[in-house]
Write a structure and sequence with these properties.
This protein is an alpha+beta fold. The protein has 3 helices and 5 strands; from the N terminus they run ββββααβα. It has helices spanning 40-48, 52-60, 76-85; strands spanning 4-5, 11-17, 22-27, 31-36, 66-71. It has a 5-stranded antiparallel sheet, covered by helices on one side. α1 runs antiparallel to α2.
């Protein structure tokens, strides 16, 4: 999904699939999440908001079902490992 950059401290970019009604957000820490059953109007308002972070917090976060897609710059295998064992597991040394 193509994402457009956002001028925000927490959010880096946003993309929208109108047919599937999925909003995809990339956060500054690289985390990517998809929000389901989002109307085109919500996406339009997010992109036009003076503060995308505030709009996200007030109108999107905890209002829509979400799914973690991954992390920008990480492989799918690394995400799967983190999901199974926790992200700190790779740093531990026995």
């Amino acid at each position: 999904m193509n994402r457009k950059p956002l001028s925000a401290s927490r959010l880096r970019s946003a993309g929208y699939d109108e047919r599937e009604r999925i909003l995809e957000l990339e956060f500054r820490d690289g985390l990517i999440r998809r929000y389901l059953a989002v109307s085109p109007e919500v996406y339009r308002r997010l992109m036009a908001a003076p503060s995308p972070d505030a709009y996200f917090a007030d109108e999107i976060d905890e209002r829509f079902a979400e799914r973690r897609v991954g992390r920008e710059g990480k492989s799918a295998a690394a995400d799967a490992f983190d999901a199974l064992f926790g992200k700190d597991c790779q740093d531990r040394k026995d």
